Amino acid sequence: MSVGRLDAPPRKGIAIVGAGNWGSSLAAAVLNSGIPLLEVVVRRANDRRRKFGESSVVLMKDAALDADVIWLCVPDREIVPVVERLVELRRDLDGQTVLHSSGAMTVKILDLAKRAGASVGGIAPVCSFPTRDPVSLSGVNFVVEATSERTRKKLSALVEKLGGAPLRVHSAKKVLYHAAATMASPLLVSAAHAAVQAAQLAGLAKSDAEAVVAALALGSLRNYVERGSDQSFSGAFARGDAGTVELHLRALLAHPTLHAVYLELARHAVDSLPVRNRAELEKLLSAPK
User: Fold this and answer.
1) CB atoms within 10 A of CB 86
2) How many CB atoms lie within 10 A of CB 138?
3) Where are the domains of the chain?
4) CA atoms of 67 and 11, how far apart (whole Å)
5) The domain 3-172: what is its CATH number?
6) Residues pairing with 40 in the sheet
7) For residue 91, what pLDDT is reported?
8) Under a CB-based contact definition with an 8 Å cutoff, are residues 126 and 102 in contact?
9) Cα–Cα distance between 285 and 245 in angstroms, integer?
């Protein structure tokens, strides 16, 4: 490694480490914002063929890593190894800011970078990135975590420059935010998929089952957004039709996973949403099967 690489002062701009689904969207947003995207660090040699404007696309071993903001867009399990490699290559991170994008991990995971002189923080997008096709970050909420008020303000300004809206979160409770986000996105997809499976068990073709579930789910979500949970809750539980709910549970007994999904969602509904005949429903849902 050259001495120049170790001693080079930070350059204004962002370096992105990781060009997966989220990293690809971030790179597009950085380019659109006018912030210099100095380099994108990729995992495989073939990925060096990808284009991110005029930015360098390099492997970690060839990266300059001299941007004033180094933004890690890697899976949670890879954050520590990447930070270790970053510190090994760069050593002195004074004047630089190292960020991770995890919604669950706190800034504590960046302690090694902090000890090497970096300011550290976390910026996690509240959005889904299902493919490498860039998703616009305009209006997207971002959970911002930092070790100092000065760094938090800097990161919030960065989020706004990218078109997003910063949300402050405290480290001790950050994982609860991520649990909520997981329920609102991937586990929401899981619930919808379970509903499709149940409809298929009733004899519907997959395409018909998906159409039925999509129509109901989209309508319910629209009502939820427009009216709130109490005013969009309907069906057997809202009416207190314990007999109907019991029929559902009996029919699902032959399909244990779907039965368990239904049962836990039902218990939450009875516990926290406006239902009639609550006592009978609670008794039904607590009965051993």
Assistant:
1) 26
2) 11
3) 3-172, 184-286
4) 5
5) 3.40.50.720
6) 16, 57
7) 86
8) no
9) 9
Task: Decide: 143 and 167 in contact? Cβ < 8 Å.
Answer: yes
Provide mean pLDDT across the span 124-130: 91
In angstroms, the CA 185 to CA 189 distance is 6
Q: What is the mean pLDDT of the chain?
A: 93
The C-alpha atoms of residue 140 and residue 159 are separated, in whole angstroms, by 9
Q: Which sign does the torsion angle of CA 118, 122, 125, 131 carry?
A: positive
- Give whole-number Cα distances, 250 to 154, 228, 258, in Å: 56, 31, 11
Give the CA radius of gyration of the chain: 24
Paired tokens of 42: 């990729």
Are the beta carbons of 120 and 107 closer than 8 angstroms? yes
Residue from 144, 164, 166, 46 nearest 100 by CA: 144
Q: What percent of the chain has pLDDT over 70?
A: 97
CB 100 within 8 A of CB 109: yes
The first and second tokens of residue 196, run together, are 């499709």
Q: How far is CA 16 from CA 69, 110, 187, in A?
A: 8, 16, 28
Helix (H) or strand (E) holding 159: helix 149-161
**What are the tens digits of pLDDT across the range 40-65?**
999 999 989 999 999 999 999 999 99
Asked whether the predicted pLDDT for residue 8 surpasses 80, the reply is: no
Output phi, psi for 27, to 5 deg. Answer: -60, -45
Over the stretch 167-207, which tens digit does the pLDDT of each residue have?
988 888 898 989 999 999 999 999 999 999 999 999 999 99
- Residue tagged 């902090």 (tokens): 114
